[in-house]
Each structure stands twice: as structure tokens, then as C-alpha cells.
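Your task
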Amino acid sequence: MDTNTWLLIAVSVIGIATLIGFFVTKIEGYGKFTTSIFLMLIVIIFTAIFFAAGKIQLEFFSNILFAVIGYAGGLITSKKVE
């Protein structure tokens, strides 16, 4: 096996372990934050797998990461609408 295959396997294993950890530690039910964090994890894992497989460029990968960081920042600082 070459280095790219091992990299793809490593990213996949880390992603699966992250999802398992998410489901083990979360409380019951799906609220706004739980669903948002789950979707962010899925986006980051799939983007990392595509990047490790050489299917997307570094610029596209970094743009997706910045979008996820911005979305997460919006979740933290969101205000209630009255």
C-alpha cells in the first residue's frame, strides 16, 4: 500500500471514531446545537476524505473549513429572536 492509501484509511478511521464519540457522549434528543454539530462533523469528515484522496484542491478544502468555523462561531454567539 502506498502513502495515499494509508492517509485515506487514517482519515476515515479518525472520522468514524469522531462520529462514534459524538453519539456516545450526546444526550437524548436532537436540538439545534446537536444537529448542527453533527452536520459540521459530517462535512469536515467528507471534505477531509476527499482531500486525502486528491479529489479536491487545498483552496477548496480551506474554504470549506473556514465556512464551518464561521457557522460554528454563529452558533456560539447567536441571540434569541424575540
User: Anything to note?
Assistant: Helices lie at 3-25, 32-52, 58-76. The chain has one domain: 3-76. The radius of gyration is 15 Å.
